[in-house]
Hints:
The chain has one domain (about 1-170): Gcn5-related N-acetyltransferase (GNAT) (Aminopeptidase, 3-Layer(aba) Sandwich). It contains five helices and seven strands, in the order E-H-H-E-E-H-E-H-E-H-E-E. It has helices spanning about 5-25, 30-40, 70-75, 110-120, 135-145, and strands at about 1-5, 50-55, 55-65, 90-100, 125-130, 145-155, 165-170. It has a seven-stranded mixed sheet. The radius of gyration is 15 Å and the shape is globular.
Amino acid sequence: xxxxxxxxxxxxxxxxxxxxxxxxxxxxxxxxxxxxxxxxxxxxxxxxxxxxxxxxxxxxxxxxxxxxxxxxxxxxxxxxxxxxxxxxxxxxxxxxxxxxxxxxxxxxxxxxxxxxxxxxxxxxxxxxxxxxxxxxxxxxxxxxxxxxxxxxxxxxxxxxxxxxxxxxxx
Length: 170
C-alpha cells in the first residue's frame, strides 16, 4: 500500500524513515540522524512524504519539499540552472527515494513517485542523483518522464560525487 503521510504520521515515522535511508544507502548513524533533522526542518516547507507499506511495516518512502532559494541544494545548483525559467516558482525538490532492498524492483518506487507527483502543488520537480555507476536509477527516472537538466553537475566544493540534475514538467 502506498500512502501520503500526514504531518503527524511524518513526526511519528521519521526514525523509521531514517532507518530505511541508512540501510538502503549504507550510511552511518550521523547521516541517518541528519535526515531526521532535515525532516524536522522541512515541516513548514510544504513537505511531502509518501510511504510504502507491506502490511503495517514501512518499507520505503519518497520525500521532498518546495524548491526555495534558501534551501541548501538550491544554493548549490542555482548558477547552473538554465536561464529563461523561474525555477523557484511552483517547483518541488525531490530529496530522497528509498525502498528496502528486499522490496526493490517490485513497483514500489514507481508507485511512490506517482504518489508524490499527484500530491505536490506545482508544475516542476527537480532532483539529483549520482551520475556514475547509477544507470538503473537514472533509467528509472527517465521512464517516469524526467529529463536531464544539468549533466554533469559538479558540486561547487567538490565534496559530493558528480551528479546529474533531472526535472519533470507535470
